[in-house]
Specification:
With about 290 residues, the chain is an alpha/beta fold. The protein is built from 10 helices and 9 strands. Strands 2-3-1-4-5 form a 5-stranded parallel sheet, with helices on both faces. Strands 7-8-6-9 form a 4-stranded parallel sheet, with helices on one face.
C-alpha cells in the first residue's frame, strides 16, 4: 500500500493536493485526528485488494490533538507501515495574499494578526517539515502546476489516471449535450436505421457494429479520432482538467453514435486512459 501524509502550512495548497491525489486514485481522508492514523492505515491494509493508495491530510487543524502527531507517525513505523510525508510550503507574503483573497479564518485563531498566526503555525510544523519526504514550495505555483508535480511524483507518469473520460453517444435530433467538451458528428457513415432488421437494434448489438465498422471511412475516422485524443488528453491534464466529456452524435442516437462511442472508449482504455461510455438517447447498456 502506498501511504502519503499531506501536511504543511495553511493556505499552501493542501486541499488542492488532496484533490489531485484523489483524481489519481488515492483514497483520501482530510483532517483525521492523529491518534486514528495507525488504525486507519491498518484498516486500509486489511482491504488492500480494494485500496492500494491512501492520502491523509494532517495539520494544525487537529487543534488539541496536534501534539500526538509524532507519536502516531512513529507508531506507523513500529507497525512496519511505510509512508511519505508531503509537506507544502509557501512564503509569508503569498500566504497573506491567499488568505486575504479567500477571507477564511486561520486555524491558529483570530485573536492575533494573520502574519503572527502564520509564524506560529510555521513554528509548530517545523518537526513535520524536518521529517518530510518531499517539500514543495507553492509560492509561485498555479494549481495546474501543482497537479503536474504530484502526477510526476505519485501518478507513475500515467496521465490516464489523472482524468476521467466519458464518451457520450447522442442523437442530434434530440439536441446537443450541454456538458460535452468535444463533439464528433458521425452522420457521414451509412445509417443502419434503413435496414429493417437492424432498426430495432442499437449500436451495441453485434450486427449493427459489424455493419458500421465494415466501411473504410469508419475505420479511418476511428483511427484519426483516437490519435487526436491521445494527443489532446495529456495537454488537458497539464492544464488541470480532471474530467472530459466527448460527445459522439448521429441522427437518432441509437446506431452509429452508440457503436462509435463504444469503439472510442475501448480504444482509450487500451491506451491506458480511465474511460467510460454512456448513451443519452439509446437503451444500450453503459460501461
Amino acid at each position: 500500500m502506498k501511504l502519503v501524509v499531506v501536511t504543511g502550512l495553511s493556505g499552501a495548497g493542501k486541499s488542492q493536493a488532496l484533490h489531485a491525489l484523489e483524481d489519481m486514485g488515492f483514497y483520501c481522508v482530510d483532517n483525521l485526528p492523529p491518534m486514528l492514523v495507525p488504525n486507519m492505515a491498518k484498516l486500509c491494509l486489511d482491504h488492500a485488494d480494494a485500496i492500494d493508495k491512501v492520502a491523509l491530510g494532517l495539520d494544525t487543524r487537529s487543534g488539541a490533538f496536534f501534539g500526538e502527531m509524532d507519536e502516531a507517525l512513529d507508531e506507523l513505523l513500529r507497525r512496519n507501515i511505510r509512508y511519505d510525508i508531503l509537506y507544502l510550503n509557501a512564503s509569508d507574503e503569498e500566504l497573506v495574499r491567499r488568505y486575504k483573497e479567500t477571507r477564511r479564518a486561520h486555524p491558529m485563531g483570530s485573536d492575533a494578526l494573520l502574519i503572527q498566526n502564520i509564524h506560529k503555525e510555521r513554528q509548530m510544523l517545523r518537526g513535520l517539515e524536518a521529517r518530510a519526504t518531499r517539500v514543495i514550495d507553492t509560492t509561485t505555483m498555479l494549481t495546474r502546476q501543482l497537479r503536474e508535480t504530484l502526477l510526476r511524483l505519485y501518478g507513475d507518469g500515467d496521465v490516464g489516471k489523472a482524468i476521467q473520460v466519458n464518451v457520450l453517444s447522442f442523437g442530434f435530433k434530440h439536441g446537443m449535450p450541454q456538458d460535452a467538451d468535444l463533439v464528433f458528428d458521425v452522420r457521414f457513415i451509412p445509417n443502419p436505421f434503413y435496414i429493417p432488421e437492424m432498426r430495432p437494434m442499437t449500436g451495441a448489438d453485434k450486427p449493427v457494429r459489424d455493419y458500421v465498422m465494415q466501411f473504410a471511412e469508419t475505420k479511418t475516422f476511428l483511427s484519426k479520432v483516437l490519435d487526436l485524443l491521445q494527443f489532446l488528453i495529456p495537454h488537458y491534464v497539464s492544464e488541470g482538467k480532471d474530467r472530459l466529456v466527448i460527445g459522439v452524435g448521429c441522427t437518432g442516437g441509437q446506431h452509429r453514435s452508440v457503436c462509435l462511442a463504444i469503439e472510442i472508449t475501448e480504444g482509450l482504455k487500451k491506451a491506458g486512459f480511465h474511460a467510460s461510455v454512456s448513451h443519452r438517447d439509446s437503451p444500450a447498456s453503459h460501461t
